[in-house]
Amino acid sequence: MSELLQKSPQEILDYENTKSEFSDYTRFEDSAERRQRARVDFINNREYEPGYDYPALDFLIDNDDIMRKKARIYEAVMELQAAENNPGVNTAELKLYQEFHDNRLKKIMLVEAARDLTSPLSSSSYETRKRNFIDINEALYGPMNEAYYMGMIATEKKAIRSLNPANEQSSVIKSDLEKMVGGIEAGEVTEPELLTPSEVRVLRDFVLSSYADILSIVPDTTDDVYYDAQQCSDIMNAALAIGGLAEKGWKVTVDAMKSNPATSGAKKTIVLPSSTRRNAAELKRLIIHEQEVHARRAQNGKESGFKPLQSGTADYADVEEGLGVLMECAVAGTLDNPSFDRARDRYITAGLALGIDGLERDARQVYETVWRLIAIRGAVDGDISESTIAAAKDKAYSHIENAYRGTPFSMRGVIYTKLKVYYEGLAKNTEYFRRNLKTLDSAFNDAMIGKYDHTNDSEAGLVASAISSRKDNA
Q: Residue 289: which of 272, 310, 307 has the closest Cα?
């Protein structure tokens, strides 16, 4: 380290070139065929927990490439700490890079912790491994917001009480829910209104005007016309071309191994699961989320020449996903849409699993509660139809898979907590744009600089300072 102290700022560049992209959740995938079988068996109650394998986790055991990557990232962090003592350094850049690399180390550690959970456990090691996985999740994605969760539960309990069952099936569902969530004491907490209808309309007008050319590529069809994965991919590739990202190397592909759409800034690729089905309205929301948030911010970050803005600063995850959800809501023109419901239901799923109300739950316990909560929203004059129940079970399973993937589904209180950041990030973004409703042009320009927390004045200041200093020294 003493040698590093003698180097000029221009010579200490290894931290900048260190490759540390690492997506934790990609290691939690299983084949689409196995996932579908597990989904059917679980929903039909043939299996208490889905039968998942995680062969990708095996690569972590004595894998030289991962060991070298970890060592190199750690060295980069050490270099950054040493560089802080050099006169004339870009301190904002050093801080952002240090947090950036430290975050990548945590992601590798999270996958290693997931591997340990799926390995044979002795009773003595169970609590240690569980605590380790929980702690790393919280270090990456923060703690749950109890007020958010309890506010949602209060809303759900009100909906349960207001249901007047029209038949025996609806009556049983209501009775089951009263047992499942009736004992949760939400107190006087109420669920906040993130944006008023008039504020949503302002955002809608701005977004539809700003992205009119890109969204116009989606055929003007009715909601009962659905496009399969390849058709969605073709339309989205055309949208990339209109938006100028195709000429910069971006593309959309279909992958049978994926369970959710995913965007990689490093590979300049948006990947759709082979099971993808979207109607026109849903496809517009998918384009605005994946292309105009994830891909656009990654590309702009790359063009800034500042790597953390391409891959994501340490604290970008919640606002990135929340911005995607908010943009979907803006396209829909209301928070009362599937994008908002998905973010909210994921938060409820996380809260139930982690036991924010005092009772940790496994995947089956959470699933049985969540599908019933979703089902009563679809009640018509007190009647919950078979088709409504089937759709609710399918949605609930998707949330369960998102939460428990990479862990044993029978473990109580152990989930992959990234699913909670969608709602938390949405809340941050709604507050950010509410403050800037009269200056949306500049607010969006700032938000699209790259993958960072544009809602945090401190981080926004660091990013502005780092970029300005680079330009001055260029």
A: 272
Of 64-78, 94-108, 162-176, 299-313, the least confident: 64-78
Q: pLDDT of 81-136, one tens digit each? A: 777 667 666 778 888 888 888 888 888 888 888 888 877 666 668 888 889 999 99
Q: What percent of the chain is predicted at pLDDT more than 70?
A: 89
The answer for residues whose C-beta is within 8 angstroms of residue 175's C-beta and 6 or more apart is: none
Q: Which residues contact 334 (CB under 8 A, 6 or more apart)?
A: 197, 200
- pTM greater than 0.85 (yes/no): yes
Strands 262-264 and 269-273: antiparallel
How do beta strands 269-273 and 251-255 pair?
parallel
What is the model's pLDDT at position 15?
62
In angstroms, the CA 362 to CA 355 distance is: 10
Task: Report d(CA 442, CA 244) in Å as an integer.
Answer: 21
pLDDT at 119: 76
Listed by start position, the domains of the chain span 2-141, 146-473
**Which stretch of 31-35, 43-47, 157-161, 296-300 has the lowest confidence by average pLDDT?**
31-35
- Is the pLDDT at 41 greater than 60? The verdict is yes
Pairwise CA distance, residues 253 & 301, whole Å: 22
Burial of 264 (0-12, 13-18, 19+ CB in 10 A): middle
Q: 């606002």: which residue's tokens?
A: 319
- Token look-up 């040493």 returns 82
